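Note to self: keep these together.
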Amino acid sequence: MATIHVAGGVGVADTAMGSYDAALAEANLHNYNLVAVSSVVPAEATVIRVETVPDLGPAGNSLTVVEARRTVGPSDEVDFREGGRAGAETAANTRAPRRRPDVVAGLGWATGPGPGLFYEVTGEAVADVRERIHAGLDAGTELREWAFTDRDVCVETATADPDRYTTTVVIAAYGESEPIV
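Structure:
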C-alpha cells in the first residue's frame, strides 16, 4: 500500500442511504464495500488529496477507509429559541426563525517520516469542524513519539435541502481494493 487518497463528496436524495451513495459517487467511491478502520496512517503510505479517487479495482471489492460522514434529513431542522426573556414563554414569537443546518464533514491528517494520524469531525459550521480537527490532531500527536512534519485538512460542506436528505463525506481510501470472496 503506497497511497491513501483523500476525497470528499456531497449527495442529495429522497432517502438517507441514497444521499450517502450519491456523496460516495461524487468521490468515485460508490462501487466498493467500505471497511472502516481507526485513524492511523501506516509509515509506508503517502496521503494525497484528490478531487475524485481513481479506479482502485473492481466493483464489489472491499476498500479500507477512514470516513467523516454527516447526513441531515427533512425533519432534522435546528430550532433556535430566544429564551431568557420574562414572559417569552407565552409570547407568539418564542421561536426564532427556523433555518436548515449546514452539513459539514472534515478529515485532517498529520504525517511525517513514520506513521501518521487521521482525525475525522462532523458538524454544522466549517470553522468549528476545522478547529476540532486541529484540536484532535494536536491531542493525537501528543500521545505519540512520532515525528509529524506535515498537516492538511479536507472539508466538505453543503446546505441541507429542506425536503430531502443531504450527506457530506470525506474519505481516506487506503491503497487498492481487495476481493471479498
